[in-house]
Amino acid sequence: MPDFLQRFDRSSLTLRVAFGVTLLLVIGGLLVSIAAFAYGREAARSAYDRLLLGAANDIASSIAILDGRAVLELPVSAFELLALAPDDRIGYRIIGPDGSTLTGYDEIIVPSERGNSRDRFFDGTFFGEDARFAIVTKRFAERTLNGTMQVIVGQTLKAREGMAYEITRQAVYVLIISGFAMACLAAVVVWSVLRPLKTIAGGLRDRDPHDLTPLDTAVPKETAVMIKALNGFMARLDRQMNSMRHLISDTAHQLRTPVAALRAQADLLADEADPERREKIAERIQSRSAGLGRLLDQLLSQALVVHRGDSARREEVDLRDIALEVFEEGDHRLLFPDKDVSLNVGEVPLPVLADAPSLSEALKNLLNNALKYGEAPIVVGAAKEGGSLCIYAQDAGGGPDAEALSLLGERFSNDTPTRQSGSGLGLAIAHSVACAFGGTLDLANLEQGGFRAALVFKAAHDGQSQ
What residue stretches are annotated with the Histidine kinase domain (predicted)? Predict the structure, then answer.
């Protein structure tokens, strides 16, 4: 059974619909057939009971009293009514007031009377065959005859059963025709429903492999959900591919000069015989290698945050925890022991929907920039400003001028202060993290003096989308 279900799950939608329609028709057909047969039996019983009752009334109305005796002449009309069921046997019995049979078949057994109804019906047998009987009573109050006479008329059930089967057969014919019509309609509906899928498949098949622009196909609302999901997936894939292109471009752009410089310094070192000059060259090689290592770290950090921005699950993060984590790691104490760094966080939680490692990486880059180009004291903190929440790195320096400030955050900008001894990737990484989680990178000179770089987000309870 599980294998059958697995095969069924992998089957086509057309086969599923066909199976569903067939199952519906079979079950519905059985129910309709049972209902039609029950209705046919009831209709046949009602119709033929009326014939029996009419014949019994005709016979009862023909009974007369003559010289204190009941005189009966069986009416032809009564038998004409019963002749409407030509294949059935007919039986009758007339019982006098004293319970004796005046005429008819003594084999007809009348059950004990129940109720006071003048006319009633009962089921019995007639010479070994199932039969249906009607009883009509007639009251006489004559001087010579006083009492109630009973007229019993019955017939076998062949006509009734035939009528019930005929009604059932007609209902089944109608059911077959309507079922065929439903199957045809289902086929048309399935074809109509699957047509948009073929259109989508054709559009995807004819696309250039590098074309990741959104699909613009007119489809029904139900199929539009799949189009939306496909477009979202292609947008994420496009961002991933762009990040890969940027990583390759950044790496080629940034590594070419440092690697060439290292090679040149290594060639000079190999040809230099003066120990003092060799020592200076070795120091330059060491400095260049350290700079190259920092550059590689930034390139990999940028690739990491771009990847996590698309793939990492958004969770509620307290910005105070991010600031505390970066401060307690203490890298600044080793790299810049001469600069004072302090922590500023409040007691009120600052929840945002984001990815904690990405936020930490972004804040580390902001702190490193402040340590390299700013003036002590330097503050790392988290705060709430109006309806927004932020984490920031702040220094006491004057900050860049307005023109340079407008260029901060652009990769490899030659006019930024970071270009003096770095790649300019630190702020670009912070900007990518802010955009990935619905925030902004805010760079500003403070009125009270100093320069602040901050990641600004909406609070988690303000409806930031996941």
Answer: 250-461
Taking the alpha carbons of 383, 389, 395, 397 in that order, is the dihedral positive or negative? negative
CATH T-level assignment (fold) for domain 15-165: Beta-Lactamase (3.30.450)
> With the CA atoms of 255, 422, 357 and 339 taken in that order, what torsion angle do they form, in degrees rounded to the nearest 10?
150
| Domain limits, the chain | 15-165, 207-306, 312-466
Tell me the torsion sign for CA atoms 106, 107, 108, 112: positive
pLDDT digits (tens, 9 = 90+) for 275-323: 877 787 777 777 777 767 766 666 666 666 665 555 557 788 899 999 9
39-46 contact pairs (CB < 8 A, 24+): 39/167, 40/163, 40/164, 40/165, 40/166, 40/167, 40/168, 40/171, 41/160, 41/161, 41/164, 43/163, 43/164, 43/167, 44/159, 44/160, 44/161, 44/163, 44/164, 44/167, 45/132, 45/160
The set of long-range contacts for 166-174, using a CB threshold of 8 Å and a minimum separation of 24, is 166/40, 167/36, 167/37, 167/39, 167/40, 167/43, 167/44, 168/33, 168/36, 168/37, 168/40, 170/36, 171/32, 171/33, 171/36, 171/40, 172/29, 172/32, 172/33, 172/36
HEC secondary structure over 220-286: CHHHHHHHHHHHHHHHHHHHHHHHHHHHHHHHHHHHHHHHHHHHHHHHHHHHCCCHHHHHHHHHHHH
116-140 pLDDT per residue, tens: 455 688 888 888 889 999 999 888 8
Q: How far apart are CA 356 and CA 362, in angstroms?
A: 10
- Alpha-carbon gap, residue 126 to 91, rounded angstroms: 7
**pLDDT tens per residue across span 223-240:** 777 778 888 888 877 777
